[in-house]
Amino acid sequence: MIDFMRWDSVREARFQQKHFSEALKMDADAPANALEHPMRMSIWYGHDWLRAYECASMILRNTPAFGGPDAMKASYCRVERNMEHPKESWRYFLFEPEFLENIGLEHPSRWGQSSKWAPLYDLTL
Prior knowledge:
Distance between the termini: 23 Å
Number of helices: 6
Shape: elongated
Largest sheet: none
Number of strands: 0
Structural class: mainly alpha
Number of domains: 1
Order of helices and strands: HHHHHH
């Protein structure tokens, strides 16, 4: 599950990199104060894979899936490789949180994010 959570965070970081870049291009004629947040988020998320691994590492801080950018990359590559094979992809199936709690396990969505109240662009490695 840790690999899967890292993979998901890296995918989300890559999505946000593209999203904020496109948002700035589409809203280029908007007032400067309206572009402040997208600009800061675009700078924080960056534009390359290394920065996506760093962002995932910062977002997962203080969770069981925390690790450095190199751990994020290794987990991302491992999940991508395993998802190509039908038998291996089943290992990433997530049960309902209620079911896991009934048998004494914690669902990854219940791990919480340590930085959910802080603006992302204030996080550092």
